[in-house]
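As a warm-up, study this chain.
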Amino acid sequence: MSNASVAAVNNVAAIPPAELSDFAHRSRYEIQEAGRLLKEWGTLSTRGKGAFNAAVRVPGEDRLVIGDFNDAALVGFDGTHYEGKLTRGLREVIGVYAAIFRERPDIGAALHTHSPYLTAHAIAHKPFRINYWSVTKRAGVEEIPLGDFAPRYAPEPILKSLREHPNAPAVLLRNRGLFTWGKSGIVEVAKLLNSLEEAAEIGVYAKLLGGGQALPEGALDAFLAERKG
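Now compare it with the structure written out below.
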């Protein structure tokens, strides 16, 4: 089979340029900066370099920049490879990010991690109730939902969560890690995840004191209404 035929079968450009265009280059830097912030805060896995990948939507196009600590590539929602280095690990998660961006045109960036304290909730099959007021305000919700169990990088549980919990900025994947997203850049998404992970850690300590207590009923709704003006 010729190289062109192989590329057609894999839906990947035969010889994608190694160089990244300006937008993709900037997005790669921002993805790596997001990873650095997560690592610095201890939000990634406590073993090794930590599981992490992320994607940034190309505005107005069905394309995204996907990357991790080392590599980044510009790809289409259909998997077509346009620029950069696309590793096997990044290739297998394109479908999830594409599904998120297709479902929610307002989402500009998303990332995947196995943050220890939040992942503990996913392993325990428990949604994460945010009782820490400053983080509740930042997240805009009182709970991070728990998604259904599914094969690795299956988009269905994430899509279901987006539809059932449209205001939630993340979903816990049952017995796995989590995906987080936002309307701003990927660095802001990372900062939010750091806050959520910190709140989850504080929640563990609160259990030693008898358990975290729920926020006053209606407090978040009142805050959001006031912020909206």
